[in-house]
Amino acid sequence: MRYIHRVTVWSLALAILLILVSLVSSGIGPVKLSSNLFLKILLTIFFGETNLLTPTDMTILVTLRLPRIILAAIVGFALGAAGTVMQGFFRNPMADPSIIGVSAGAATGAVAVIAFGISIPFGIEIAAIIGALVAAFFVFYVSTKNNHTPIATLLLVGIAVQTFLGAIVSLLLLLSGKNLRQAIFWLMGHLHTANWVDIAFTLPLVLLGFSFLFFFTRDLNALYLGEESAHSLGVNVEQTKKILLGVASILTAVAVSVSGVIGFVGLIIPHIMRILVGPDHRILLPTSALAGAIFLVVADTVARYGVAEIPVGIVTALVGAPFFIYLLRNKGVPAS
Amino acid sequence: MTSIKVENVSVHIDNMLILKNISANFTKSKFIGIVGPNGSGKTTLLRVLNGHITPTEGNVYVGSDPIARLSAHQISKKIAVVPQNTMVSFDFTVREIVEMGRYPYNSRFGGFDSHSDLVTWAIEQTDLSALSERTINSLSGGEKARVFIARTLAQETPVLLLDEPIASLDFRHTSRILNLIKDQVDNFGKTAIVVLHDLELAANFCDQLLLLSEGKILSMGAPESVLTRRNIQDAFHTDVSIETHPLTGLLTINVIDPTR
């Protein structure tokens, strides 16, 4: 029962931290809202006091800040979970959600729509998801021979496809003319366009995908020890690989489709959590997802603090990379 | 109840014939050693026995069921495996890895009973109690090997398949582990099928030996009938002298050095 106790305590603590961080974040931004905002928000939520917040406060909170904070949390949650699964699946601490070409595929789809100025509702989101899934399944299909998918082949094909798609994106950027700025903003990861529709679209998919993965955490533990070991512990290896890779790719695709390519969350968050809670996926997966949400809410708060808007992908990389190097030097990452 | 039968099994991997027309019956309550030179197909045979590799031709039966009809989950309640050189990239503790032996008995949707008495017993049996909270990557090769043997004990299966379990063990633990396996066979009715390199140990611990050479069974049966000078010469292309100790009955095999 040690396990249930640990997963509950960690998840609750992180969930509370996420709520606190979100409350603080809602008071930060280019527009100064009325003083004692947190207190007023709390009174409004818990006691139904309607006249504490001014109409300006309400408008900014409801149409700008809240959707943005919630979307950041959803995207961070998805990237943290997908990163954990990818690292476990590939038995490789360098893996992240983009490793099998998901992000590159999404970028290609979205940039194509932006570059050619196609404007249909949800055009960018749909193109990003299609691009991501086509890339992921192409990589998986090419790497599979005789119903067997060696992990090393998968990684190498993933790298080749990423490089190829990177070239396509560069080409599209050259052709994009007046849409260049929008395309680059998309590529760098952004949350400033967040709205309630994005949330309604991503939240159910992300929660569904996460719950699915959660039921496979034991199989991931077994896969850590190699496919032969996993098979002998009762894991249907090839089927489980397809499910894990498919669901993790969909999670990443959904996140990337609304936020652009946000690097580093899926790479460093599982590492930090592995140092804190250990490698057992039954604890690692939920805690990494929550930690990813917290990290992205904080990073996005930094991104919109100040006069000019910075793409959040720049913040995650600027903060994430040095912190990661610090961790490597001081804590060390288990060598494979 | 659980015996494993192999019928006319051939395995091709990348158009190479690895196993050729193997038929054998591994009966209950026997300690069976698989011996043979490097590349003779020992590991492949073990993988066929646990269903990890599907043979190109022939059938494998677990009890009366063809193994191809059993799911990995059904097999995992009958056969436990210690593969060769298991690499672990992340730092699980010894106890966490032994607990994985209980996975086949727990449902995916809850039931997190890790059966801690059994896990503790398996850890004690393999002399790992002092190391149980250490991380796997801080252990030596021989200690790691014992962790995976402990996991198969926790898995409580009637059949154990071990691929060179003593390859990296020291003198003391070699005999301790082989005696442990023998105890499981003699007193708990298990069937152990073990790949071994040391012919003397194989002869002195196993009830039955299976000598593989170039993917074929060269000989199978009681150790003294399998490990003859002739068979060893055919399989290993090495001349040996074989002696049985008059009092202990233990077999000694010495290489006759042609240059001397």
Summarize the structure.
The complex is a heterodimer of chains A (336) and B (260). By secondary structure, chain A is mainly α.
Describe the structure.
Chain A is an all-alpha fold and 336 residues long. Chain A has a single domain (2-330), classed as ABC transporter involved in vitamin B12 uptake, BtuC. In chain A, 75% of the residues lie in helices and 0% in strands. Chain A has helices at residues 2-26, 37-47, 55-89, 102-115, 123-143, 151-175, 180-187, 196-214, 217-224, 227-232, 237-259, 265-277, 281-304, 312-330. In chain A, helix 1 (2-26) packs antiparallel against helix 3 and helix 3 (55-89) runs parallel beside helix 8. The longest helix of chain A is centred in the N-terminal third of the chain and has 35 residues, at 55-89. The two termini of chain A are 30 Å apart. Chain B starts with a strand and ends in a 5-residue tail after the last strand. Chain B has a domain at 4-78 and 157-255: 3-Layer(aba) Sandwich (Rossmann fold), CATH 3.40.50. The model of chain B has no long low-confidence stretch (mean pLDDT 87). The longest helix of chain B is centred in the last third of the chain and has 18 residues, at 171-188. In chain B, strands 6-7-8-3-9-10 form a six-stranded mixed beta sheet, with helices on both faces. In chain B, strands 2-1-4-5 form a four-stranded antiparallel beta sheet, with helices on one face. Chain B has a two-stranded antiparallel ribbon with strand order 11-12. Chain B has 260 residues and is α/β, with parallel strands linked by helices. Chain B has nine helices and twelve strands. In chain B, helix 4 (116-125) packs across helix 5 (141-154). Chains A and B meet through helix 9 and helix 10 of A and helix 2 and strand 6 of B.
